[in-house]
Amino acid sequence: MVKVSTEESCITRLVNGFKRLSSLPVVLARTSQPHEDPQTHLLAISGIKISSLASSPLILINLHEFESGSQALNNNIGTPNADIVISKHKMEFHALSYSSFLLFSVYVFLHCSLAVGSIQAVKTITVDTSGNGNFNTIQAAIDSVPDGNSQWIRVHVHQGVYKEQVKIPKEKQFILLDGQGSDSTVIQWNAHTVPSDEEFGTAAFSVSADNFIAREITFQNSFDYKSNKAIAVAAAIQGDKCSFYNCKFLGYQDTLCDYQGRHYFNQCWIEGGVDFIFGRAASVYEGCTLNSILLEKGPSWLTAHSKVNLSAPGGFVFKNCKITGSGSMYLGRAWNDHATVLFYNTFMSDLVVPLGWDSWKQHDMSQITYAEESCTGPGSDKGKRVPWEKKLSAQEWNKYLGREFINQDGWIEQNAP
Predict the structure, then answer these.
(1) Is 37 a catalytic residue?
(2) What is the pLDDT of residues 261-285, one digit of tens each?
(3) Which of the four pLDDT bands, split at 50, 70 and 90, describes residue 105?
(4) Four-point Cα dihedral 197, 303, 20, 246, nearest 10
(5) Region 163-191 average pLDDT
(6) Which strands sit side by side in the sheet containing 84-86, from one edge to the other?
(7) Catalytic site residue from 83, 178, 258, 275
(8) Which of 83, 178, 240, 254 is catalytic?
(9) Is 358 a known active-site residue?
């Protein structure tokens, strides 16, 4: 068995672990109160219980989506002498005892090795345009994966621009497509179509297989949108349990076809001008940037979502994201009257139009679920939003922000690279 992350040094993994921790809504703090059970101090870290190594009790407090900074965190805990404070906004280190630092290091190790580096690749296939890999093209590497594959295979793509159309059929599951940085590893294809069933087939990259991961790679449709407006899909995803880490999706109209299945996007850059995220999938976008390159004044649309019916699974959930770029944009237009799009704790620049949402051709807006919560920036003012925007309860928000939306079986953690 080959660990996927074997090429990372221990120091790199530790540094990356600290970076990841700095964005987690948790606090590790010393408490002066006696533990309920002084004989065994247990911490639940990413679902793993370990014995406390500290001479004095330590507790791990989960502050889900707590946003008020380290001072408020300390106030919430009720202890001014916290060893380490980690929030979504900053990470502060105070005077650490050796035992506290040791425990913190164990947390970093467990989080990196078990929570975000848990998959094992039985084989690594290398792709290099210069001929220094197993294959010169990505598609050739994909084709070499046997149909019915049931174990993770890593396709390591060296930096370069790969001018090819890449398709992963449903028979080839458990592929990790691993680039060398989204700025230097690019899948590029030039194709376009008119609105039809052929949109999926013209994508620069498409995956129909379940259990797929991509990281540190760019998917680009290089069609010249400045001279001719047409649908030009960069990536089309219709497998289940597909995840993307630190990837870029570049296009103009219909950039990302998030077609069907459960999908997770983390720290991705998605760029376009018209409906540049569309489909009927159930997907979570976390820490992503949605960048408009709209040529005209607009307004245009960031998303276009639909569901087969009201009870069908589906929806786009944007958590801790950023909306940037040029032109003016609706947050979304309803592809049908069951469209579901939610923005949570997202920065919205002034390109977002005051109305926020477009019903498009729908006449019954009662079943459309468009909602926003805890968003910031000049575009987040809801004073002039459409009257049919949903006002969800805390319980309803938890349905979309919690595990039950797309992660009931824990696949996101299990499939983390």
Answers:
(1) no
(2) 999 999 999 999 999 999 999 999 9
(3) low
(4) 40
(5) 98
(6) 58-62, 26-30, 84-86, 91-93
(7) 275
(8) 254
(9) no
